[in-house]
């Protein structure tokens, strides 16, 4: 029995020592595999037409971010002020830049924390702005149904990102490369 306990302890001590390298790398891979394209596609829907699309959001951007305000102005974004434009542009750019930074491991902890903030705001907008009150969409923790879009899925997203916030971007990251060069 002692031999079995020693084997168990040796194996899991070894895994514990490797966790600083494995967990953040796996978290960044998981984020890239599951969420990178999702956020980039969402950002593209916010871009306006033509060359200035990155600074002139589409009407769809305002509808996604400010559904109630757009309804109040009969879906004419030109009636919204400069603050609405600034938030729409910042949101669009965040959906492009933060996921790229997470995947590259550049400013890993900050970019992961930024993504967590983005997901929280996204969820609040879905619930308050878009009125996502359908129990299947909203979900509930500990209900035995693991596929709700907001509470279940986004908790998993945030957990993956928290690994990066806590442990850093890992050994295969631009952060680590820049740290070695410095």
Give a quick precis of the structure:
The protein is an all-alpha fold and 182 residues long.
What do these coordinates show?
This is Putative oxidoreductase. By secondary structure, the chain is mainly alpha-helical. The chain has one domain. Helices cover 74% and strands 0% of the residues. The chain has eight helices and no strands. Helix 1 packs antiparallel against helix 4 (82-104) and helix 4 (82-104) crosses helix 5. The chain is flat, with a radius of gyration of 20 Å. The N and C termini lie far apart (49 Å). 23% of the residues are buried.
What's the topology here?
Layout: H1 2-46, H2 59-65, H3 67-72, H4 82-104, H5 108-129, H6 135-138, H7 149-167, H8 174-181
Helix pairs in contact: 1-4, 1-7, 4-5, 5-7
Most strands sheet: none
Mean pLDDT: 93
Q: Give me the number of helical elements.
A: 8
Strand content: under 5%
Task: Write down how many β-strands occur, each being a DSSP E stretch of 2 or more residues.
Answer: 0
> Helical amount among residues, as a percent range?
over 70%
Distance between the terminal alpha carbons, to the nearest Å? 49 Å
**SSE succession:** HHHHHHHH
Radius of gyration: 20 Å
- Helix-strand makeup class: mainly alpha
Overall shape: it is flat
Protein name: Putative oxidoreductase
Transmembrane segments: 20-39, 82-107, 155-174
Keywords: Membrane, Transmembrane, Transmembrane helix
Main attributes of the structure:
Putative oxidoreductase, flat, membrane, mainly alpha, 182 residues
């Amino acid at each position: 029995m002692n031999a079995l306990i020693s084997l168990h302890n040796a194996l899991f001590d070894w895994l514990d020592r490797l966790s600083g390298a494995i967990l953040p790398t796996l978290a960044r891979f998981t984020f890239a595999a599951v969420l990178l394209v999702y956020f980039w596609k969402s950002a593209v829907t916010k871009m306006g037409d033509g060359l200035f699309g990155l600074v002139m959001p589409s009407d769809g951007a305002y509808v996604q971010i400010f559904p109630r305000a757009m309804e109040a102005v009969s879906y004419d974004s030109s009636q919204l002020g400069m603050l609405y434009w600034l938030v729409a542009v910042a949101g669009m750019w965040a959906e492009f830049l933060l996921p790229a930074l997470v995947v590259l491991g550049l400013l890993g902890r900050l970019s992961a924390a930024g993504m967590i903030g983005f997901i929280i705001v996204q969820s609040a907008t879905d619930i308050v702005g878009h009125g996502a009150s359908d129990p299947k969409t909203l979900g509930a923790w500990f209900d035995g149904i693991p596929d709700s879009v907001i509470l279940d899925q986004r908790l998993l997203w945030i957990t993956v990102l928290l690994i990066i916030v806590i442990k850093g971007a890992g050994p295969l990251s631009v952060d680590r490369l820049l740290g070695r060069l410095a």
